[in-house]
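Record type: monomer structure entry
Structure origin: computed from sequence
Chain ID: A
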Amino acid sequence: MSSTQQVLGLRPVAVGRRRPPRWHPRLHGSELAWAIAFVVPYAAVVLAFAVYPIAYALWMGGDLSLYAELLADPHYIGAALNTALFAGCAANVMMFAALLLSGFFMRPRWWIKALLVVTMLPWALPAIPAFVSFHWMLIGDYGFLDSALWNLFGIDGPHWFNERWLSLGCDMVAYTWKWLPFWTLMFLAGRMAIPPDLYEAADIDGATGFRRFIHITVPLLTNLYLICTALSAIWIIGDFTAVELVSGGAPSRSTEVLATLSIHYAFDGSHPALGVAIALSALPVLIPIVVILMRRIETREVQL
């Protein structure tokens, strides 16, 4: 012990024996009781509404003969193709349109801000009445769109739900109309997070609007674009309301997707195990998308 330590009454500290800080102190008495009181209900809800249903669904769909039956079912093959087209086309078209619209709504004009509020209305509407209204606008000769074509131009409108690709296109348009405002708002928030100094420097260098978009906006929004596209694809694969309420699978169930076919087999067909197997058959596609999504979210680069 040095003289300074003797005067100050300090004890020598052994180097290398310092105890680490206790980041997780043990709870005792009433603190432990309160912790258990908060954790137990949450754990019970997770077990009852997440773990048990998923485990039960995996058990119901664990029979390999169900998937052999699905592969022999032409309705399943068509629904799988429709789901792939729906998720691939609707998600990408919707994201690209949302990216362009977000640039339009960035302009500082009052009427553009007012228009932004109006464009949010389809997203704010409940999904069921929105899709039912879309259905009645297109159904038969007395639908709003066909009536408008006849009264204004004397043109007989097409039978929207009598042809497979036209009917599936109506489903995609309805889904895009409903969710496009939401993704536009996401990209608008992303654009607002871009530092204005970058655009000012581009203006000094003489970059035009298109070159600013390609060299500044697109690189900075790439991460956000990929995350939104992956999320949209996941939601589309599990969506039931758009196809069921707009086209109803017409004509002759040719526009059904995996979500609607699963519900119909499980309830209307009284074959719940087959319905669960249809839903589980999407996992080979959903799991890679989720993995990609998690990797993009964990990106440490300075990107939006």
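Annotation 1: Confidence is low (pLDDT under 50) at residues 2-10, 300-304.
Annotation 2: The chain is about 70% helix and 0% strand.
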